Amino acid sequence: MRAAAGLFAGQGVSGTSVEQIVEAAGYTRGAFYGNFDGKHELVLALLEERTRHELAEILAMNAGAGTFDEVLGRLRAWHRRRDENLVGWLALRTELWLYALRDPQLLPVLAERERRSREAIARSLEQGFTERGITVPVPVEQLALIVHALDDGLSIQRVLAPTDSGPDSVVDAVELLLASWAALARTTEIPREGPSS
Q1: Residue 22: which residues within 8 A CB-CB, separation 6 or more?
Q2: What is the pLDDT of residue 187?
Q3: What is the pTM of this model?
């Protein structure tokens, strides 16, 4: 799986053959087919393995953290570590997405992977709001979706234009959003435009 991940990131899923995978891994075709029915099943296994790995990292950020600020500090450190291999990480993630998007049977697997990630983010956000005594104006799941999409988008921008943002840009944006949502929650009446009389 490690050999396949490296090849998929470098030359794409479609551009990688089983022969290349087994050669890079130092195994035989027989060993490959003893573990996977084919490349399609290997992609499924990689999606699941990466989902479990990322969820474990998110949960570890929350575990034993005394405050939400400590969680943000851990998130900042995690992004700095990820930044060291961001191009490879993003390339593999994008390749797995593209492969799944082209296969209607894999779309539910991809959707479930994303849902689990958003749930973990929502738990973190809820912890932060609870600590601050904040009742957010919208469901926390909606805010988690925004944070998740923001992370994806800023990661892409970081790779495309690394001098325009730093490894802390995601956490800086999350802190800005939290402050904005907290301010919105404290507003007792949100002005609404209605028909003029």
Answers
A1: 3, 28, 29, 31, 32
A2: 66
A3: 0.77
